Task: inverse folding
């Protein structure tokens, strides 16, 4: 049981049906900041000040008076007191500097909008830790990691900025975010319309809760990206799972796999699910950063990286060994485009700037997004959505159980027609 | 110091500048349910079911799994599954049955709107106690007494009703409340517009925070009510304070006062501030229930009770003794209209159905409403608004300190133009 739970918990970072919707942000934000030369990133110098604002740990209760320092970044090169605006990035589950450096859109439009750029770090990520090193120690310390508290942080910070920056008080503020941060931007406009005149919510899966959309839809879209990026590409991936299963049934197969995939540690039979989850998340990540220009967000990548990976996956009708060698080549586009990787580590799929611990807790409490696959409408192994299993694993890891319907209760699900000025894209 | 703090804490229930805005609800609700015969209450039989719904003690954190039973009342005599509606009373600081029996408007319109009436009790009031008898023991137990938690209770309850009552799912819900409950109705529509199509917020002082309105405006309006209800009425009251001060400087004066006012306990010189606060709150209460028909909400009263009281206060130019005898007659309209009172108790100004403990905590945390008087624009003794003193007294009583700007941050202050379908009256 311990082993099984452990595997699931790893899976909650590695496998798409547990957590990947955290990061789709960036595709849309990417397409928003389309540079004039689509093969390179926009070359805007990112100069900003790093600042801190004292926040209450608990906005919704008065029993604790504890505070912490929320980090935020301000870039005001193009800001004008008169006729300007404030673009407010509603930070999501990672280091705010990393998001700041990868949200080109805001930098691109700063001059035109005479905008002050503000990037607010989400509590429990980056340096904004309510209990310092103890922040992730148990459900008592994690109790204040919720979207509601994060939105209240944003509200208090905006009030602070308007109060303290001369000329800012009457300027319009626009919330901007991607992925979970896009949800936050939308929710912020919904809950605090007095704070922001509007929100740009990029790749914000606000309906990826309960049964608002079919649980398989996300992975189906990922599959479509691969299917359209090269002949037989998604079919090759779909067939790879059984090939891995067959090979991993023998010791020599495991050894071959470890070597063929250039893994840093040799596989045991118990690692196989983990391996497949890692590969699955790699495809999902590729879909999320399939930008039309070279980029370096989750990994250094060429333009249209799925197309590049699919060049290795043109023929699904080959032997298991050849198919998996091709899979490795495709994985290598993601993990070793720079040519620097000595071996591949199946415990990592992306930058360490993402806050995996914090996100794991959020996925175990409020942000319960059902994902599933069936291997028919998508290219993944079938995996149903199992709330009971998630709940038990969450209880074992964090001592909490998810409340899958809460986000819909709080933010309205599909019944959001009374809100205005929220751009979803 | 102990004595002083104690006196202030009593004052926080007895004196208008600390708490009276809690109850102005009822005047507007009263005028809403104007009966055809304005000298009597509408005679609608109030038949309802008493029900309970299991609520989470903490909607905004996952560390506790504790629940409690929220009481609510349902009256569905006129309800129609098709074409009907749900009127949802957002319970405020008292026993919900008492509010139910005194919100005639909802009963009056039930048939016309084919409405189901639902009266939801506010947590920490009436029977809806999150920690039972321990609910008011210390800031740890009181930590979940906030407007945000109460609104979340309402949201969960409405979801429950729509899920479990056949035909209710697609019916429009309208939030209705008065005074603090009127604020809750308005805030509920602001924060959960997916739950209610609109709100009727009666006598809801949503701007009685920070400096959104001058702190003296409420007491000025009370004074105007008295000034317009009889010649020299407010002037008589204005002069009464100094008369009390002069009389209470001697032992014989104290004794005379105790007897003239028919007090249950004889006054000491330390009770004088308390006495004046009690009288002040009486005038405020009269203003809040100055209905055009006989009623029995805070006390049994005649129609237009201020006019009746002012009949005793026509001449301010009399001796202290005569002036205060007249004041007693006026007080008696409020405290002894039934003729049943044997003596007057300066620790009580209204029904015990109000939850004074819970409200005291709320006034010490979120619901920080600045009130003040100057004795010129109003008929009361001058009393400035002193946040520091309030904070220290709150800390001594509850171990918490108020956050006076939080309500504005949360609910928008005057910047609420993006909301719709909220009727303030």
Result:
């Amino acid at each position: 049981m311990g082993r099984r739970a452990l595997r699931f918990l790893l899976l909650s970072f590695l496998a798409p049906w547990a957590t990947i919707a955290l990061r789709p942000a960036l595709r849309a934000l990417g397409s928003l900041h389309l540079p004039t030369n689509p093969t390179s990133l926009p070359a805007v110098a990112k100069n900003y000040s790093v600042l801190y604002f004292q926040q209450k740990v608990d906005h919704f209760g008065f029993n604790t008076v504890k505070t912490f320092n929320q980090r935020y970044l301000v870039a005001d090169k193009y800001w004008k007191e008169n006729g300007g605006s404030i673009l407010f990035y509603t930070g999501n589950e990672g280091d705010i500097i990393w998001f700041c450096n990868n949200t080109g859109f805001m930098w691109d439009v700063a001059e035109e909008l005479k905008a002050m750029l503000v990037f607010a770090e989400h509590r429990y990520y980056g340096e904004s830790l309510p209990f310092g090193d103890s922040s992730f120690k148990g459900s008592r310390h994690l109790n204040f990691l919720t979207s509601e508290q994060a939105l209240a942080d944003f509200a208090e910070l905006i009030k602070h900025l308007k109060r303290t920056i001369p000329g800012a008080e009457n300027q319009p503020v626009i919330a901007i975010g991607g992925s979970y941060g896009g949800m936050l931007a939308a929710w912020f406009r919904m809950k605090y319309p007095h704070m922001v005149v509007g929100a740009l919510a990029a790749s914000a899966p606000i309906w990826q809760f309960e049964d608002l959309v079919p649980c398989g839809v996300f992975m189906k879209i990922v599959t479509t990206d691969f299917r359209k990026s090269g002949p037989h590409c998604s079919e090759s991936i779909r067939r790879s799972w059984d090939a891995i299963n067959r090979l991993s049934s023998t010791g020599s197969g495991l050894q071959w796999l470890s070597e063929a995939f250039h893994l840093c540690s040799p596989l045991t039979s118990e690692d196989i699910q983990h391996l497949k989850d890692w590969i699955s998340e790699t495809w999902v990540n590729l879909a999320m950063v399939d930008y039309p220009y070279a980029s370096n967000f989750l990994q250094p990548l060429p333009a249209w990286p799925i197309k590049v990976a699919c060049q290795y996956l043109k023929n699904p009708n080959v032997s298991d060994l050849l198919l998996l060698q091709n899979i490795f080549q495709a994985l290598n586009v993601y993990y070793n485009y720079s040519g620097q990787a000595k071996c591949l580590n199946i415990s990592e799929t992306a930058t360490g700037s993402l806050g995996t611990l914090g996100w794991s807790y959020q996925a175990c409490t409020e942000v319960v997004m059902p994902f599933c696959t069936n291997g028919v409408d998508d290219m993944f192994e079938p995996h149903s959505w199992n709330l009971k299993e998630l709940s038990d694993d969450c209880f074992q890891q964090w001592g909490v159980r998810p409340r899958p319907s809460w986000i819909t209760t709080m933010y309205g699900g599909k019944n959001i027609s009374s809100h205005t000025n929220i751009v979803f894209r």
